[in-house]
Amino acid sequence: MQTWEDLLSEGLSLKMKLGDQLSQFGPEEAIKNQSWRLKVRLLPVLDPAPLMTDTLLLRRGHHVLVFLMHMYIHSAPIPGELTPHVVPACIAVPLCRISSELGITPILTYADNVLWNWHLPGGQPHELPTERRIRSHALFSGTLDEEHFYLTSAKIELRGVSALSVMRSTLDELFIGDATAVRRISSYLHRLSSIIDELTHLLLNVREGCDPAIFYHQVRPWFRGATSDKRGWVFEGVDAEQAAKVPALSGPSAGQSSLVHALDIFLGVDHERGEGRGAEPTFLTKMEQYMPYHHRVFLQNLRRPQRHLREFVISTHAAYTVHALSDRAMPDFATSSMGLAPRASIFQTAAVGESGIKAATELQSAYDSAVEALKRFRDGHIKIATLYIVNQARSAAQTSTSIAPELNTKGELTTDGIKGTGGTSLVPFLKECRDNTFKTMVHPPSPCPSRQ
C-alpha cells in the first residue's frame, strides 16, 4: 500500500494538468504527465489482502486507488481517435477487490472526496474533528478553491450529526405517541428546522473560498466518471462481470451524501413518483450504491420504523379534532355491545378538547417548518449549481465547442443539457427534488415559493 501512497503523493505534488488542457501549456507539462503515467503503468499488481481485516485501511486504499485512477485517466493527452481509457491492472484489480469488500463502487465517490479526505493538522489521532480545524488530504488541482469545496461538504456532514441526533430522539417519541410525546416532537422539529437552515448557510458559504471558474475548469473535470466520458473506460485484468459494470460508473455527487437522504426519509419526502418513471430506480436510489455500506444499511433501516413521522402528524391532528368534536356532540357515556361504558380516548394518555387540538396544530406547524427548511436547502443547492456549473458552462459555450453535447439543435446551451457529475440533467433534477420537498408539507403555502 505504501507504493500506492508514494505514487499518489508524487502525482499530487506535480499538480498535473488535465489532458484536454495540455495544449494551453508548454511541452514540459505534457512530459510531466507522461512520466508520472508511465510510473503508474509499471506498477506491479499488489495483493490488498493485508488490508482486508481493517475497515479504515480499506477506506484509505479505496481513496488512494480512485485518486490514482482519476489522475491517470484525466491527465491523458487527447488521442487522434476516441480509443477507450484503459485503467491499468495495477489499479483496477486491487480497486475492484477492495470495493467489493467495502460494498462500494470502484470509482471516485463523495466518500473519497469528503468523508475519507480530511485530517486535523497537528492534532492528536483520537481528537474529534471540528468544522474549524479540518483540512483536506488530497487535491487534484492543488488549489485552495478545491479544498474549500470539499470542506464545505465536510462541515455540512459534521453539523448534520446534530440533525441525526434530533431525528433519533423524535423516533423514540414516535414509538410512545402520547400527548407528552406530541409536545416533545414539536420541539424537536423546530430544532431540526434551525439545524437545516444552518446547513443551508454552510452550503452557501462555498462562495467565500471557491471561485466558480476555477471549480468548473480546474477541479470538476477530474471528477468525471465513465458515464461522462465519450471514450469509455476499460478495467484491465478484471473478470467479465466486473468489466460489464464499468460503463455505468458515474462520478462523485452530493446525491451520494447519506445525510440528505436521511432527512428525506425521516420527513417523508417522496422522490419515487414521477410521470413515466415506472419501476426504473430513481437517481437518488442509484446513488445509494456509491455510499459506504453502513450508510446504505442505515438508510434501509430508517425506512422501516413502526410509525412514519408524516403519517403520525396527519393522524394526530385528525384524531384530536374528531375526539374534540365527539366530546361536544356526545354524552360522557356511550352504548356498546357490552352495555354502558366510558368512551375510550383515541390516545390513552392524550389530552382532549381545545388543548389537544392546539398541540396537534403546533405539531403540524413544526413539521411543515422542518420540511420548508429542507426546501430552502434545496433552493440554495440550485443557486450554487447555477453559479458554479450552469453559468460557467454558458460562458464556456461562447468560446469553445468542447461542450457540444450540451447544445440543442440550434446550437444553444440549455439547462436541460447540462449534466451533473452523477450523470443527471442537473437543473431539472434539482428542481424536481425541491418541488417534491415542497409537496411533502401538510399545509404548504400556494404557490411554491422561490420557484425557479
UniProtKB/TrEMBL annotation:
Question: Aminoacyl-tRNA synthetase among the record's keywords?
Answer: no
Cellular component, GO, one term: cytoplasm
Taxonomy, superkingdom: Eukaryota
Q: Which GO terms describe its biological process?
A: 'de novo' NAD+ biosynthetic process from L-tryptophan; L-tryptophan catabolic process to kynurenine
Checking Pfam families in the record gives: IDO
Q: Which residues are involved in binding heme b?
A: H381
Going by the UniProt record, its keywords in alphabetical order are: Dioxygenase, Heme, Iron, Metal-binding, Oxidoreductase
Gene Ontology molecular function: heme binding; indoleamine 2,3-dioxygenase activity; metal ion binding
Q: Which family does it belong to?
A: Belongs to the indoleamine 2,3-dioxygenase family.
Spell out the protein name for this chain: Indoleamine 2,3-dioxygenase
State the species of origin: Rhizoctonia solani
Q: Which lineage?
A: Eukaryota, Fungi, Dikarya, Basidiomycota, Agaricomycotina
